[in-house]
Amino acid sequence: MPNMAALQTEVQQSSLYLTIEQYVKESPQEASGILFIYSANAPSYLETQIRGVLETQPGVSFEMWNGNEPGSYIVLLPGQQLDAVHFQGLLLKQRIQETNGELDLHITLSSFPEQGELSEQVMKQMEESAKLSPSGDIHIFTRQELRSLQSRILIVEGDATVREFLQIRLQMQGYETAVADNGISALELIESWNPDLVLTELNLYGIDGLPYIHHIQQLNVKNVPKIVVLTEQRVEQTISLCFQNGVDDYITKPFSPVELDARIRRCIH
């Protein structure tokens, strides 16, 4: 079963994202810059350093919050266009590394609504980008990346508890979701709702297994959705046949929610 403690942590982080989103939307400023800052080896005084650098900049006001885990911070710069936000990011990185040259500081930044509409999904993606960046370069989150995030996922799962967990988790990441508890309803929803990805169990009422996968591939839709199987079936022959019949990924239960997130993103993007 999924880790409910991990879900509770994400609910709390979702509340922070909503707070920032509301702050930006209600701001009288034309633009608001956001920086996500992460360091895996962050010293305890890093937050104080960040605040100290920003407080010395004339005409710069800011709000700052702790991110999703230690070493992660979110900075809001009201009234700052993208060029100004980029400059603040470069200056912040330079000043901090002048006092601690070994600190691996990762920054993802953008400005809204200059680069599009701010949302929970956008902030989650930016925070993860800062954390997973392979280098210490500053990453600018652009309008093109924003457009690639807006995706629909159909969840097909007979177990109501697992189905609800998956829907809550994916919605918190900004995906538009729909659910079905059997194969027949799933096929009807794929035709009428046009999801980008189907996350599905194989053991379903009505139609299941490989005939169900084959039906998805044969539907009269403009774009056949990506298919990620999430199932208790571990038979190697079944896994092999699924991939041969067009399944994009195959995950067995019990599953890691973090791994599931990453594999869904990989399939969609």
From TrEMBL:
Residues 152-268 form the Response regulatory domain. GO terms for biological process: regulation of DNA-templated transcription. Pfam families: Response_reg (PF00072). The keyword Endoplasmic reticulum does not apply. PANTHER family: REGULATOR OF RPOS, TWO-COMPONENT RESPONSE REGULATOR ORR33. This is Response regulator. Keywords: DNA-binding, Phosphoprotein, Transcription, Transcription regulation, Two-component regulatory system. The keyword Transcription applies.
